[in-house]
Write a structure and sequence with these properties.
- The two termini are 25 Å apart.
- The chain has 6 helices and 5 strands; from the N terminus they run H-H-E-H-E-E-E-H-E-H-H.
- It folds into 2 domains: 108 residues, Alpha-Beta Plaits (2-Layer Sandwich), CATH 3.30.70; 58 residues.
- Strand 3 and strand 4 form a beta hairpin.
- It is an alpha+beta fold.
């Protein structure tokens, strides 16, 4: 690859240096974005704490090179509920990772800052689609576990495992044929 960035590269950098590091990382495939999240609940502290925890988990995601969140003041909605928003600046190692983060955490809005254009090769396109497919299956599995009984759940898991194995077999076959 020829480059490597980590959270350590960004920890003590000033804003001007950070912007340069972000642009440099984007030239090598990283994606810089601002993600907007919101939280609602019946307790003011719980609403804010949930977003603090949320941003903390984002910073630890594999493939997240930089993550800094700012949480707005919690608002009393006047109906016994509270709400707030967070703006999170995040740099991921590539577009598939940004897609994964977006699908896993469900931001209310996304602003891509860098790069202005993304070109994906075939392998990267496959990674993007497989990431979306995998997260979709995780979500479906979660829903199924909450609705189905143990017997139906076991049959579902067996079907999913067979699909995973077949997908791997097909991908490996395509790779072998592509090498000929």
């Amino acid at each position: 690859m020829g480059w490597f960035f980590s959270n350590k590269d960004f920890e003590n950098a000033d804003e001007k240096k950070l912007e340069g590091l972000f642009r440099e990382a984007a030239r090598y495939g990283a994606v810089l974005a601002i993600l907007h999240f919101d939280a609602h609940g019946k307790e003011s502290n719980a609403v804010k704490d949930s977003l603090v925890d949320f941003v903390s988990r984002l910073t630890k995601e594999k493939g997240v090179l930089y993550c800094k969140g700012e949480i707005d003041e919690v608002l009393d909605n006047g109906d016994g509920t509270f709400s707030t928003t967070a703006e999170v600046k995040i740099l991921t190692e590539n577009f598939p990772k940004m897609l994964e983060v977006s699908m896993r955490y469900g931001p209310a809005a996304i602003e891509i800052l860098e790069p202005s254009e993304i070109k994906l090769n075939v392998q990267e396109m496959q990674d993007v689609l497989l990431s979306a497919s995998s997260l979709s299956k995780e979500y479906a599995s979660y829903v199924v576990q909450k609705v189905w009984g143990p017997e139906e759940l076991e049959k579902y898991k067996e079907r999913v495992q067979k699909q995973v194995e077949e997908g791997k077999r097909l991908r490996e076959k395509a790779e072998r044929e592509g090498q000929k």
